């Protein structure tokens, strides 16, 4: 990890900017579960900031359940499953009920729209800044695998910014189940473009604090993904050519990615 390449955002206080940037590295997978962060002094030197700012940023990440800090062990990135003792039980329940992608999509349609509504009412300035960066990164990304990583990070972030660890855990289990579809035959360049537009609408609703709209956009997004997956599974050529002007669920998101 090249720490000198990390450039903090400019719209927040220094500790908040640092926590947002470190959080982005974790959600994007550049810092994986089990990775050890450099000591505070080394991080401060790499980033050109004070140890106090580093300490506050790490404290925030620890409070959010993203890292674990222990004397003698250092600072380690946690996986979502390490954040709560009930994670295994949630995972077992989701895994047992989700052998089929259509089952996963049905669960997403139930879980994700209310999560977007909650986040619209609870997101903090640093949360909005992180979501904005993810949306903008997706809009400019053309590589399928990298887009899939950003896609997953966006949906995970929305769940995380409910500031409810149970919702975050449930969403993570769903994300693990649908991961194959993010880089599979369901993906096309056209779908990624439509998906980015849907993500932008969800983000704008959350940033505006409009829970009703955030929920509606998230629901339309998931239902249209399910429609496109069904078309692809049945060999319908239309699955490769989404029609943005058709609004079967109230918006124009016809993206068949997760």
From TrEMBL:
Location of the region described as Disordered in the Swiss-Prot/TrEMBL record: 233-258
InterPro entries linked to this entry: GntR_C, TF_FadR/GntR_C, Tscrpt_reg_HTH_GntR, WH-like_DNA-bd_sf, WH_DNA-bd_sf
Keywords: DNA-binding, Pyruvate, Transcription, Transcription regulation
SUPFAM superfamilies for this protein: GntR ligand-binding domain-like, Winged helix' DNA-binding domain
Top-rank taxon, per record: Bacteria
Domain HTH gntR-type stretches: 12-80
One example GO MF annotation: DNA-binding transcription factor activity
PROSITE patterns referenced in this protein's UniProt entry, alphabetically: HTH_GNTR (PS50949)
A matching Pfam family: GntR
Keyword DNA-binding (UniProt): yes
Protein name as annotated: GntR family transcriptional repressor for pyruvate dehydrogenase complex
Species in which this protein is naturally found: Leucobacter aridicollis
